[in-house]
Structure formats: structure tokens, C-alpha cells
Specification:
Length: 148
Amino acid sequence: GDSVITVQLTEEDQVEDDVVFYLVFTGSTVQHCTSTRKINPGSLETISPGHDCCETVKVALCASREGHPVLVVAEENFQFVQDEAYDAAQFLATCAGNQQALNFTRFLDRSRPPAADVDFLDEKVALAFRHLKLPAEWNVLGADQSLS
């Protein structure tokens, strides 16, 4: 999630001033509705929502106009993919409270990615972490919460 999506409209669907377009993402367990911004008469853009798993979802482009029913203009598939940020978030979630998990940071020290890349990865891991499915009893300290 959190990437810019551009929608190209057909000539029949060109943006009129009184029409509002939005996208509805329907996954296996979560549905997102996002507003769009008109770039020009033939293009819209939005920010993809964060999602709770890697899967292909249905995306419907909907249009509404006051006094008229909502219309589904187009439908397409959209894929939420697994990337290094998702992998890192899952790793950190499953290793909460495990001191050996700190070896992951040693990998980053050895590979020495540029600071800007580390900041970008940090933002993406934080976003992926917010959308993980975690048990209600999960916490960052792990199962053993004693501070010995």
C-alpha cells in the first residue's frame, strides 16, 4: 500500500465537474474505499491503501453524481505483493521478545545500505506492520514479559 495509482479513463468516461470517482478494493477479508483526485479530464489518481495480506483483490472504479445512482464504471484486478518490507515486518512480529532476532540488525550493519534506503525501508516496514494480522494477545515484548 501507500503507492500512487493512476487511472486512465476512456473517452466515454471523461471527467465532468459534477462527477465524483472513487475506487473500491475488495479482498478476501477487507474492503477499502479511496477517493480520487482529477489530474486532467482523462486521468485520476489515488493512494493505494495498506492491506492485511498478499493477495489479488477486485478494484471497482465507481462514479457518483448528485441525484443519480452510483455506477460501477470499470473493474480490474489489483495485486498486493509480498516484498522485503512485508517479510521484515512478519519476521519482527514472530520474533518479538527473542534476543537472537537482533541478528537481523547485524545483517543491515554488514550490508550498509545508504541512509535514505534505510529510512525508506523503515517507513515501508512500519506500514506493513500496521496491517499484519496479529493475535489479540500479541505484544512487542513477546510471551515472556519479565525484564530480568
